[in-house]
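Hi support team,

I submitted a single chain yesterday and got back a structure, but I'm not sure I'm reading the token output correctly. Could someone confirm the output below corresponds to the sequence I sent? I've pasted both exactly as they appear in my results page.

Thanks,
R.
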Amino acid sequence: MWEDADEGVWRSPGKATPVRGNQDLLEEFEEAATGDGIQSLALGALDNSFLVSDSGVQVVKNFSHGIHGKGVYVRFDDGGRKGSPSVAHSTPKRALLMRGETNMMIMSPAKEGKPHATGLHQLDIETGKIVTQWKFDKDGTDITMRDITNDAKGSQLDPSESTFLGLDDNRLCQWDMRDKQGIVQNIANAHSPVLHWSQGHQFSRGTNFQCFATAGDGSIVVGSLDGKIRLYSKTSMRQAKTAFPGLGSPITHVDVTYDGKWVLGTTDTYLVLICTLFTDKDGKTKTGFSGRMGNKIPAPRLLKLTPVDSHMAGVDNKFHGGQFSWVTENGKQERHLVATVGKFSIIWNFQQVKNSAHECYRNQQGLKSCYCYKIVLKDESIVDSRFMHDKFAVSDSPEAPLVVATPMKVTSFSMSGRQ
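Hi R., thanks for writing in. Yes, this is the structure output for that exact sequence:
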């Protein structure tokens, strides 16, 4: 099926900017983590970013050369309400910034080893208090969620944002923090307020959703255990507009460009990059989020490690967290892709990967793989690697800094174009 697909989307449009071979990664800052080890990164596009650990959140300052400690550590506090279990006793799996980056939704699995959560804690970053515990509830029944994300790629910057998306094995939905009448709940008195299921769909069985992400306009991409990647328009969570057939490996993480034209899926041993553009029967160019691609799906590109690097990364080390660099503005294009495997942070040049004339692809048959990347090597396993928001790019470096977190340290790297 992939073989007959149109390869035209991979041709470089017009004159491509030459890829600089001399771009180096310069280490700018290294910070020791406060607390009991970093569990996840929550990067902000405004003044601050956050390092989330089991017992609290370390607040760091965003600069054009990376993130730098402010020395502020917000310890999880349940707000003094009796009888409410403290978030400090459970490992945060997901930390989502909301409401102009003043609030953080923290989701912890109900049981260690199981990825599902029955609710989440809402942390007011300015006061350092857990202002409420939310329960996931549908039609009066407690349900679980595997993952949460913002309504759209730039939503965390919206100070009035009160909805977010949720994903479980067979559910895709939107949660609303206001009650059904549209009145904001009095959080101070509510012991464990219930989130309102505002829209979504509970699939009968067998979808085995694992992960999801949103584009700039709120379109949703969902990755599954069977390797399928489904595209949903922001208007319907009931039926996917397009489903990319899997290559067999479970999708553990997905990301999508701001414009919705490219999707990146992470599996244990490779990344898969898919172009969602196609021409419909009326000759219009659309993405697979807004129209049904059918058999017009372009063949994807696979991003892999060379056998030597794969051996160096270790047998047990798996790819995780493949991300595009971060833009939230129409017309701006992501420049790099980054993923983590063991002690390696791997960076691909996006423009190079999507150019079908790229030398990696010349003598390959079937699905083509790209092995051109840069490696950041740390002395411990890496928790997460992500690019800061595009606005932190400086003039001599066209890309914003890369932040690499290990359990006890966080390091910022600048993508330098200097000789």
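A quick pointer for reading it: The longest strand covers residues 66-75. Let us know if anything else looks off.

Best,
Support desk
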